[in-house]
Write a structure and sequence with these properties.
Elements lengths: L1 E5 L3 H16 L3 E6 L4 H6 L3 E4 L8 H9 L4 E5 L5 H8 L2 E5 L9 H12 L8 H4 L3 E3 L13 E3 L23 E5 L3 H10 L6 E5 L15 E4 L4 H4 L5 E4 L3 H10 L3 E3 L7 H10 L1 H15 L4 H12 L1
Helix pairs in contact: 1-12, 3-4
Length: about 300
């Protein structure tokens, strides 16, 4: 079958990539219909890319890509405004993939989606919001969606291509903690907070944007931004900005994680607990084992094929 995957940004596309690979490996034709700024991310992920549409509610290019092929299945990121509409116009089945917790649309969002659908002669139906099924790679309790057509899937960590830094192949003398995500100014605050932690700290940050005078402790190694899934297998814990891709990558590997969306207060003590509290590691390993029981993306392919037959 002909499968069109679509997402508005590179990170959201990366969330779809493992399912796209599974469909391609099963023998289906797969294309990524994405804005111009995401074409290189699609190509770098091994997907055939079609430049389609602009941002936000500019969905004409996406609709045209789905209709002209025509697609038989559209796989769209949960942030996509037009994935369901494009599928309906093309007469295709369609599924949503969650890359962040499910949030039901409010009246204003529903009105805008109704207007967009109406421009193509379509009536608003709930599948434009939820898909005919929802593929959920998020850890338990995170997605917030338990409606019909809920398809939990094992997360496959991927947030872009990268080479493994050579130093990671050497056994760390101390626990290794990854600090990733967030603005450079926030990273500077984190660097101060981790100064006294007895661990090897690896920080991914655009070093050119660090505030002047930022002090980098001797046990801290700075790396230019790179995919967390490449670094996590070598780390004992991760501190991040709440990015779903990073959280899922840590969860599927059983790496204890600290989400800094609530601030860096007490960071040293919180990181020490990640490293020293057996209960924290046990919980991370239980989550890993629970995720491992889910079907792989390849295991979902028959379900998706069934939507088209």
């Amino acid at each position: 079958m002909r499968v069109l995957v679509t997402a508005a940004t590179g990170p959201y596309l990366y969330h779809l990539a493992p399912l796209a690979w599974a469909l391609r490996t099963a023998g289906h034709e797969v294309r990524a219909a994405v804005p111009a700024g995401v074409v290189e991310a699609a190509r770098g992920s091994g997907l055939a890319a079609v430049e389609a549409g602009g941002e936000g509610e500019d969905i004409a290019g996406l609709v045209a890509a789905a209709r002209s092929w025509p697609a038989e299945l559209v796989v769209w990121d949960g942030h996509s405004v037009g994935g369901g509409i494009a599928a309906r116009v093309a007469g295709a089945a369609h599924v949503r993939v969650l890359s962040a917790p499910h949030v039901a649309p409010g009246p204003e969002a529903t009105r805008r989606l109704t207007d967009l659908a109406g421009a193509y002669g379509l009536a608003f139906t709930e599948d434009l919001v939820f898909g005919q099924a929802t593929v959920d790679p998020l850890p338990p309790g995170v997605s917030g969606f338990r409606g019909s057509g809920h398809l939990p899937v094992r997360p496959v960590p991927y947030d872009g291509p990268a080479a493994v830094p050579a130093f990671l192949h050497k056994k760390a003398r101390r626990p290794r903690v990854l600090v990733t995500g967030g603005e450079a100014e926030g990273v500077a605050v984190v660097l101060d907070a981790v100064a006294e932690i007895d661990a090897e700290i690896v920080v991914t940050v655009d070093s050119a944007r660090l505030p002047a005078g930022t002090r980098v402790p001797r046990h801290v190694r700075l790396l230019e931004p790179m995919p967390a899934h490449v670094l996590l297998p070598f780390c004992s814990a991760v501190v991040h900005d709440g990015a779903p891709l990073t959280g899922a990558a840590a969860a599927v590997r059983g790496v204890p994680q600290l989400d800094l969306t609530d601030g860096a207060a007490g960071l040293a003590e919180r990181v020490a607990r990640l490293l020293d509290d057996p209960g924290v590691r046990d919980a991370a390993e239980r989550l890993r084992d629970e995720l491992a029981e889910r079907p792989s993306p390849g295991g979902l392919v028959p379900e998706l094929e069934g939507l088209v037959r």
